Structures are given as structure tokens and as C-alpha cells.
């Protein structure tokens, strides 16, 4: 069995306290400051159709996440905007990821839309700081060193395949977020995980093990895929 490793943007199903929420690991900053950016695309047409967030909307969501991160850590009520862009009222899956000095500090999100996007960002910013079970609560003294990232997801769709080779042929590294399901077991990797696990079989084996399956569990699992619009604070 492959050893468990800490992989950027991996996600793990949580319990009833955070219904439909999952936590993820954030990748280290690859160096240098950069503006909010979308994950690079090989499938140009599909990627273009998924990125429907303007730079102003991305800035709005990052600011909203930052405000609610600070409110949660300092014990203040959530910051709810009086005016929200129309696209942020749509029900969308999303994750809020916190990194500190390039290392994961917390990440919580929803794979599918259960509340409007702006509300999901508010909830997940708080949860990433205070309810990621892998980490102690973020403290006020840490806020200046934390970078906020947001990933907005497309709706997961079933990926039908004939056999393992057909599944491998259909995967798009760097673009596909993958959900594996087998009975009561489920796990997912966000698209950014391809940066750490570029080999398709390695990617799927680690995802299988993370979900409590044997390494080759992916060969007979139900598979869904989604895309992510990923952006972060400068």
C-alpha cells in the first residue's frame, strides 16, 4: 500500500458537524508574488467556458474571504456584504485555502453548491481558520502571515469509462479535479494536485488510498470530474 503523504489540495470527507464540507491541503507558494490566476488549461474551450469570474469578482471574493477570516479569528460576527455581484449569488462549490509562509494552514470547502457562492466563501473562510481538524485554530498573531486562496468549482459530472486504460486516456492532468466513490468511501483531489502527482496512475492510486480503498481501487470506482477556477491574494 502506498504511504500516506501530505499532498497539496487533497480533500477528506468530514463528519456531520460540517455537513457536505471537506478539508483540503494547499500547495506551497511556488515563489514570487503574482496576481489572482486561473489554473492553466490544455483543453482551451472547456477552460474558457468554466472561467466566468471577472477580475473584479475574484478581488471581491478574496476580500470577502479575508474579512471573514479576520472576523472569525477575532471572535467577531461574519462580514456580510450589502451588495454582491450577480455571479456570486449562484450556487457553486468552492474552497477557501489558507497558507502561512508557503505551507498549508487550513482549507475547507464544498464540492457542490449548497449555498450561494458568496455565502460559501464566508462559511469556508471561517471553517478553514477554526474547523480544519488537522490544525489548531488560527490565532490573531498569525493573520499578517497568512495568504488566502479561493477555488471555485464547476459542477462534478460522471466520467464514464470502459476499463482502466480508457479512464487513464480520458483524464486531463492539470485540469481535472477527480472524485472517486466506492460504496460508502469517497475522496477527491482538486486539479492543483497534478502539480505534485503528474503521473496518472500515481495520482489515482494516492486518491484511492486517501479514500480508504486499496491502491487499485480506482479501477472499479465511480468517477466524477470537475474543474476549478483558482486565484489567490498577491
Structural account:
There is one protein chain. This protein is an alpha+beta fold and 234 residues long. It folds into two domains: 146 residues, Hypothetical protein ph0010, domain 1 (Glycoprotein, Type 4 Pilin); 72 residues, Dna Ligase, domain 1 (2-Layer Sandwich), CATH 3.30.1490. The chain contains five helices and ten strands, in the order E-E-H-H-E-E-H-E-E-H-E-E-H-E-E. The chain has a ten-stranded antiparallel beta sheet. Strand 7 and strand 8 form a beta hairpin. Helix 2 runs parallel beside helix 3. The protein is globular and about 50 Å long. It starts with 9 loop residues before the first strand and ends with a strand. The relative contact order is 0.21.
SSE layout:
Blueprint lengths: L9 E4 L7 E4 L19 H7 L4 H19 L19 E8 L2 E8 L6 H14 L15 E8 L3 E2 L5 H7 L6 E6 L2 E5 L10 H11 L11 E5 L1 E5 L2
Antiparallel strand pairs: 1-2, 1-8, 2-4, 3-4, 3-5, 5-10, 6-9, 7-8, 7-9
Helix pairs in contact: 2-3
Amino acid at each position: 500500500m502506498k504511504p500516506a503523504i501530505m499532498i497539496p489540495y487533497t480533500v477528506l470527507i468530514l463528519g456531520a458537524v460540517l455537513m457536505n464540507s471537506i478539508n483540503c491541503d494547499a500547495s506551497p507558494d511556488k515563489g514570487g508574488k503574482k496576481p489572482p490566476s486561473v489554473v492553466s488549461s490544455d483543453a482551451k474551450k472547456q477552460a474558457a467556458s468554466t472561467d466566468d469570474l471577472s477580475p473584479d469578482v475574484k478581488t471581491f471574493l478574496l476580500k470577502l474571504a479575508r474579512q471573514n477570516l479576520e472576523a472569525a479569528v477575532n471572535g467577531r460576527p461574519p462580514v456580510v456584504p450589502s451588495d454582491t455581484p450577480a455571479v456570486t449569488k449562484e450556487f457553486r462549490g468552492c474552497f477557501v485555502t489558507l497558507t502561512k509562509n508557503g505551507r498549508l494552514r487550513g482549507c475547507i470547502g464544498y464540492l457542490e453548491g449548497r449555498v450561494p457562492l458568496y455565502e460559501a466563501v464566508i462559511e469556508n473562510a471561517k471553517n478553514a481558520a477554526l474547523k480544519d481538524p488537522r490544525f489548531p485554530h488560527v490565532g490573531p498573531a498569525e493573520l499578517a502571515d497568512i495568504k488566502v486562496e479561493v477555488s471555485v468549482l464547476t459542477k462534478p459530472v460522471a466520467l464514464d469509462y470502459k476499463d482502466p486504460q480508457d479512464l487513464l486516456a480520458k483524464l486531463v492532468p492539470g485540469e481535472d479535479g477527480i472524485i472517486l466513490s466506492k460504496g460508502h468511501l469517497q475522496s477527491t483531489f482538486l486539479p492543483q494536485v497534478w502539480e505534485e502527482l503528474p503521473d496518472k496512475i500515481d495520482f489515482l492510486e494516492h486518491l484511492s488510498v486517501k479514500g480508504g480503498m486499496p491502491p487499485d481501487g480506482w479501477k472499479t470506482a465511480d468517477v466524477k470530474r470537475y474543474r476549478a477556477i483558482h486565484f489567490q491574494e498577491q
